[in-house]
Known about the structure:
Distance between the termini: 43 Å
Order of helices and strands: HHHHHH
Helix content: over 70%
Number of strands: 0
Number of helices: 6
Number of domains: 1
Amino acid sequence: xxxxxxxFLIGLAAACAHADPFESxxxxxMLSCVASAEAAGGAVAACLGAGARPCIAxxxxxTMSETLCWSHExxxxxxxxxxxxxxxxxxxxxxxxxxxGASEAFARFAESECAYRGETFQGGSGAQPAAARCLAELWSxxxxxxxxxxxxx
Length: 153
């Protein structure tokens, strides 16, 4: 079971690493959503899917487009989380090791949880889109939490 999950994640990572980015995934749309949400009171979580859904609509709903669009959004959220984490570490060096430990544990959790969600499709065509969307969901939550922490300090 663990080997199958690991193979699935490696396959997903390879597909994402070698795929051409879809022009219909607009990072600017994501930035705009986050800025608007923060201005309206911090409901950044409402931005989940702001990049993937229009991308899927433009590319057509298919396994590959859903996987790639959600993967691009997951990558965007991961970058936001990593950027916020770097700023927090720079602001509070004594707490940096604890933040790094939490982030490493979160990354392992997200990888395992999303492999589990993909496994519910038992290798079927829904496995990769489910895992990619899972990564976007979990990393958006992590990014939102780090951005909120950053605003408090």
